[in-house]
């Protein structure tokens, strides 16, 4: 606004001509000088200068807004930006419509908990024709752990959208819209990202999935400052892809075990020695996201997948608009299914804690990963 031209501000012609004659072209040129400096430069009296400065300031400075109006504007922008519905009613309601466009959404949890199942269902929903509630687009699925299963995806499709998938040729058409890339190294992954950004519009891509980023870094053995530098570059690039293309970008993250003496990822999660549940077994409450706190701050939405007392949960751990909620779920032939749509509000550190009771074989996956 400071570079707005004075000629476009509706000033009286007499003072506008004087400004132009003294080579004062923009609002910044005028507002950078004091009223007394303007009086001397323009050779006019103080009242004329004050009136002109007030007029320019009113047009240049943005109007004040209340906290309520800012919140309402943000909610409206979120709704207008678009969402990919997950077909999980409670989660979609909490996310104001589903997985938002233009930002990075992270799924974090132990192996086998349901993250890839969630990604397969999202792939179907993005490629499904709009007449069936989909985005009618292509999907780029970067599968770093070779977990993508075409057979399982088609099974989910037949059970979730029987009308669409029983139409002749629909299953083949849907499968043909999902491009699966399997980079074997971090350098291959980086090359793939750079090529993807160029081709997003050309191929009508409506969803990008990276499953998973943590596996690539673990395979490379990248540690210390080099790891942080690589993570910083990749998350910045992935965010730029989301913002540039205005599509949902979903990235999965693994977990690693956390030693009892290790500093907590989040300062607000730290417990005093008195409050710390010493009796809890080492198969529970000692898991943290593998990619660390810098990555966590970079994503806009974080969904934590966990298991407690034999029950799986999706926890909405981070969202700019939604309360922290936990939804119990099962995995069925049609993919992930919520057991109820209300969710349980879970404020405080518990929403960020990752439980995996009774799955000792999962706990040590990626235990050498450094955050």
From TrEMBL:
Record-linked InterPro entries: AAA+_ATPase (IPR003593), DNA_recomb/repair_RecA-like (IPR016467), HHH_XRCC3_RAD51B (IPR058766), P-loop_NTPase (IPR027417), Rad51_C (IPR013632), RAD51B (IPR030548), RecA_ATP-bd (IPR020588)
SUPFAM superfamilies documented for this protein: P-loop containing nucleoside triphosphate hydrolases
Annotated compartments: Nucleus
GO molecular function per UniProt: ATP binding; ATP-dependent DNA damage sensor activity; double-stranded DNA binding; four-way junction DNA binding; single-stranded DNA binding
All residue ranges annotated as the RecA family profile domain in the record: 80-255
GO cellular component terms, A-Z: Rad51B-Rad51C-Rad51D-XRCC2 complex; replication fork
PROSITE patterns per UniProt: RECA_2 (PS50162)
Pfam families, per the entry: HHH_XRCC3_RpoA (PF26169), Rad51 (PF08423)
Listed PANTHER family: DNA REPAIR PROTEIN RAD51 HOMOLOG 2
Family statement: Belongs to the RecA family. RAD51 subfamily.
Protein name: Dna repair protein rad51 -like 2
Organism lineage: Eukaryota, Viridiplantae, Streptophyta, Embryophyta, Tracheophyta
């Amino acid at each position: 606004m400071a570079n707005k031209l004075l000629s476009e501000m509706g000033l009286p012609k007499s003072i506008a001509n004087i400004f132009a004659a003294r080579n004062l072209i923009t609002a910044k040129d005028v507002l950078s000088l004091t009223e007394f400096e303007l009086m001397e430069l323009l050779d006019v009296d103080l009242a004329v200068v004050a009136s002109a400065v007030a007029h320019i300031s009113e047009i240049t400075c943005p109007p004040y807004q209340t906290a309520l109006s800012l919140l309402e504007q943000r909610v409206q922008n979120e709704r207008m930006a678009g969402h990919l519905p997950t077909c999980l009613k409670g989660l979609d309601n909490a996310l104001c419509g589903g997985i938002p466009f233009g930002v990075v959404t992270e799924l974090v949890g132990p192996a086998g908990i349901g993250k890839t199942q969630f990604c397969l269902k999202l792939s179907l929903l993005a490629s499904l024709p709009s007449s069936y509630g989909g985005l009618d687009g292509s999907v780029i699925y970067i599968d770093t752990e070779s977990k993508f299963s075409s057979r399982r995806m088609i099974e989910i499709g037949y059970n979730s959208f029987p009308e669409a998938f029983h139409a002749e040729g629909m299953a083949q058409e849907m499968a043909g819209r999902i491009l699966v890339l399997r980079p074997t190294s971090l350098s291959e992954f980086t090359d793939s990202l750079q090529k993807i950004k160029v081709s997003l519009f050309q191929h009508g891509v409506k969803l990008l999935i990276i499953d998973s980023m943590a596996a690539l870094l673990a395979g490379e053995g990248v540690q210390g400052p080099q790891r942080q530098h690589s993570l910083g570059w990749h998350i910045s690039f992935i965010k730029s892809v989301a913002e540039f293309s205005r599509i949902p970008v979903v990235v999965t993250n693994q977990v690693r075990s956390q030693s009892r003496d290790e500093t907590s990822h989040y300062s607000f999660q730290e417990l005093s020695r008195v409050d710390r549940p010493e009796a809890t077994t080492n198969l529970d409450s000692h898991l943290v996201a593998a990619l660390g706190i810098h990555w966590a701050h970079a994503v806009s939405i974080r969904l934590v997948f966990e298991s407690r007392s034999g029950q799986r949960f999706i926890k909405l751990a981070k969202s700019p608009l939604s309360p922290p909620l936990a939804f119990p779920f099962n995995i069925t032939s049609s993919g992930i299914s919520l057991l109820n749509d209300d969710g349980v509000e879970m404020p405080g550190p518990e929403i960020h804690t990752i439980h995996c009771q009774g799955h000792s074989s999962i706990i040590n996956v990626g235990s050498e990963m450094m955050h």
